[in-house]
Design goal:
Layout: E1 2-8, E2 10-11, E3 23-24, H1 29-42, H2 44-47, E4 51-59, H3 67-78, E5 82-93, H4 100-109, E6 113-119, H5 123-129, H6 135-146, E7 151-158, H7 165-178, E8 182-187, H8 195-201, H9 210-226, E9 230-233, E10 236-238, H10 245-251, E11 256-259, E12 264-268, E13 273-278, H11 282-287, E14 293-298, H12 301-314, E15 319-320, H13 321-326, H14 334-343, E16 347-350, E17 353-356, H15 364-373
Parallel strand pairs: 1-4, 1-11, 2-3, 4-5, 5-6, 6-7, 7-8
Antiparallel strand pairs: 8-10, 9-10, 12-13, 13-14, 15-17, 16-17
Helix pairs in contact: 1-3, 3-4, 7-9, 12-15
């Protein structure tokens, strides 16, 4: 099976905390999709004879693109490969873009899953994040989407400037009252070169410290578990059978193809594993759309092992202890590390595999690093 990702690099404005590749405005949408057709045709050999189980439209803001462009590209892809009968076609969307008419058009085009960038149902937090939609709009659009799509996911951000426990509790309450199929909870990260980073550095805003963010995250874990949501990845919770198929496939290191500027691909064969990335420039992408790969790396045995450890812990699928010992250079020092994390309540051992506890999810990267590097 294969999954596909399309990076649509357009947003109406850049959010203060965002470091993804994008351009503001939509003047080049038509030119982008003409170039995308050329890139897609040039990758015919990678698609031929393959069955695609999931397609994810990310960005950027895919929902600001007229639906006819998305539908036309899906037709182009369908002509080059096979779609599984239950294919999941997911699209990231902002609430202000999702009228009833637009949602109906997306569903008619084949979209089965909406990932709505709500970020918050609280007006105070939306203002702090500089979001364009209102709290009422977020609730209404989510409810409308739940009546129309097989799966609906809602993004929430925790740790915005001015965040406190009562605001986070109110956000969770509003989200759970709607009962979306899936929730992605992100701790706000102050990324270099963003507007938020500059404002924090100048003391114009302050964000909650790590201890408060960790406490709010654990609160969400407990509440969502009570409400029947399973945590299948560090930031992702779902009702049964509503995980993101594309995201889970990437975390399981299954092959995927990325289209559009800055998109990544992971190609797997019996002989090698290869990661590639397209140019992070719309101008360069439009200039030579049939030759846009800017980075190519064949993974070594050590790199494969490292990825396996990090990603197995991230999705908590169970990390086989024998596999960990076999691929590890730490030798006899590994057992004390496992014992220490177990005593701290960060991991649990079960039938030869280790799993993160709820608290352990907070330290997943640290645990992986200790297992690999000591």
């Amino acid at each position: 099976m294969l999954t596909l990702y399309l990076h649509i690099p357009f947003c109406k404005a850049r959010c203060s905390y965002c470091d993804f590749y994008l351009v503001t405005g939509g003047k080049q949408i038509d030119a982008f999709f003409r170039a995308l057709s050329l890139e897609t045709a040039s990758r015919r050999a990678e698609l031929k004879g393959r069955t695609v189980s999931a397609i994810h439209f990310g960005g950027g803001t895919p929902s600001m693109v007229p639906v006819r462009y998305l539908a036309a590209w899906l037709d182009e892809i369908a002509a080059l490969c096979n779609f599984s009968p239950d294919i999941e076609i997911a699209l990231e969307a902002n609430p202000e873009d999702l009228s009833i008419k637009t949602m109906e058009a997306l569903r008619a085009a084949g979209v089965t899953r909406l990932s709505i960038g709500v970020q918050s149902f609280i007006a105070e937090k939306l203002h702090a994040l500089g979001r364009a939609h209102t709290a009422l709009q977020a609730s209404r659009v989510t409810a409308d989407a739940l009546r129309r799509f097989v799966s609906v996911s809602v993004d929430l951000i925790c740790g915005v400037p001015g965040e406190n426990r009562s605001l986070w509790e109110a956000d969770l309450h509003e989200a759970l009252a709607l009962r979306p199929h899936h929730l992605s909870l992100y701790m706000l990260s102050v990324e270099p070169k963003t507007m938020l980073h500059r404002h924090v550095a100048k003391g114009l805003v302050t964000v909650p410290d790590d201890a408060l963010q960790a406490s709010l995250y654990e609160q969400a874990q407990n509440e969502l578990s009570i409400q029947g949501y399973s945590q299948y990845e560090i930031s992702n919770f779902c009702l049964p059978a509503h995980h993101s198929r594309y995201n889970l496939a990437t975390w399981k290191r299954e092959p995927y193809l990325g289209f559009g500027p800055s998109a990544h691909s992971f190609l797997v064969s019996p002989q090698r594993e290869l990661r590639t990335a397209n140019v992070s420039s719309l101008a360069r992408y439009l200039a030579v759309p049939a030759d846009v790969v800017a980075f190519r790396e064949e993974l070594s045995v050590e790199e494969r092992f490292t990825e396996e450890v990090f990603l197995s812990l991230r999705i908590n699928s169970g990390l086989d202890v024998d596999f960990l010992r076999k691929g590890n250079k730490l030798g006899h020092t590994l057992s004390p590390i496992i014992a220490r994390f177990s005593e701290m309540g960060w991991i649990e051992l079960n039938e030869g595999s280790l799993y993160l506890t709820k608290k352990g999810f907070l330290f997943a990267d640290l645990i992986a690093e200790e297992f690999i590097f000591g």
